[in-house]
Hints:
The protein is of the alpha/beta class. The protein has helices at 26-36, 44-56, 196-203; strands at 108-110, 128-133, 138-140, 148-153, 158-160, 168-173, 178-183, 189-192.
Amino acid sequence: MLDRPTPVCAHRPHCDRPAVTPYRRRWGIAIVLSGLIGAPATSALELADLEQLLTTGDCVECDLNGADLRHLDLRGADLRRADLSESNLYQVQLDDADLSGANLEATYIGHASLRRVNLTEANLEDSRIIHTDFSEALLWKTNLEDAGLDSVNFQSARLLQANFEDALLIRIDFRLTALCGTRMPTGLQFNRNCGDATLLEMNHPD
């Protein structure tokens, strides 16, 4: 059984992980919720989950399917195992957020910042990602099958056993990226910049 790789900030005593404050943007809560109230497909539970995210920044296992999260500051948010499928993440800030195990299938991510984000075992199948920064992010067993990526920055990120099969990759920055056991669109498996520490993260037994 493989140990999970350690997120970038976990062992840095002075790592800048900004807390998500009770939303410095109360107007943001009002705008997002007003856009959903009255929508027939939006349940009271979904609205409650969205309000929880916007108020506290913590929304583990929340149902945010189809949510409009444009322009929001969600740095450091805890969204583990959340359902964000078909959501709109245009110009969202998710630096240092934890999206491990989250479902982002068919999600739109545009002109966004996801630096140092944890996407361990997240599902981004069929997502559309443009002009987005994933520098220093952790993508361990992350699924990006059939995704479309254009002008995306993975500089210094760790892509460990990630899956890009049948994905469209245009103008991708893989400088200093650890591509270890990562399956590319052609089906070939890449192993590049896989130092001993990275390989240990992937293969160290319990």
